[in-house]
Amino acid sequence: MSKQELVVLGQNGQSADCCPGQLTAPLDQDQAADLAKIFKALGDPVRLRLLSLIASRAGREVCVCDLTPAFDLSQPTISHHLKLLRQAGLIDCERRGTWVYYWVLPTTLDRLSTFLTTAQKPETTFLTTAQKPEATA
């Protein structure tokens, strides 16, 4: 195994601000309500899977006809879950003839990512294998 030293930001004069989290102040009531609506939509396993299926599709859009067979649910139930994802601002859609095509809205995912990203605290350290203290029995 390699005994490379792991560089920890915030030590030896290096800046810990290379990847700061964007949450620098507490959420106000409106921001919290908006994010709660998005997280509530993602709180259901079916909707989380739907979002995952849409986001992972090459071309970044998918026909509802390709989503429905992936679940043991009726088409109206799938449509209901897709409607809730749309209302939360996670996806959008367009009707093309008989079918509806869905795609992820990256700005909403970026907003969630920003909220969930936290800055690394300078006092946080990572130990390499050679630096780990031995367990005492």
UniProtKB/TrEMBL annotation:
Asked if the Swiss-Prot or TrEMBL record annotates the protein with the keyword Transcription, the reply is: yes
Please verify whether the record's keywords include Transcription. Answer: yes
Q: Which domain of life is it from?
A: Bacteria
Matching entries from SMART domains are given as:
HTH_ARSR
Identify the PROSITE patterns for this entry.
HTH_ARSR_1, HTH_ARSR_2
Pfam assignment, any one: HTH_5
User: What range(s) does the HTH arsR-type domain occupy?
Assistant: 27-124
**What SUPFAM superfamilies is this protein classified in?**
Winged helix' DNA-binding domain
Q: Gene3D superfamilies, alphabetically?
A: Winged helix-like DNA-binding domain superfamily/Winged helix DNA-binding domain
For this UniProt record, the keywords arranged alphabetically read as follows: DNA-binding, Transcription, Transcription regulation
CDD domains attached to this UniProt entry = HTH_ARSR (cd00090)
Protein's name in the database: ArsR/SmtB family transcription factor
Lineage of the native species? Answer: Bacteria, Bacillati, Actinomycetota, Actinomycetes, Kitasatosporales
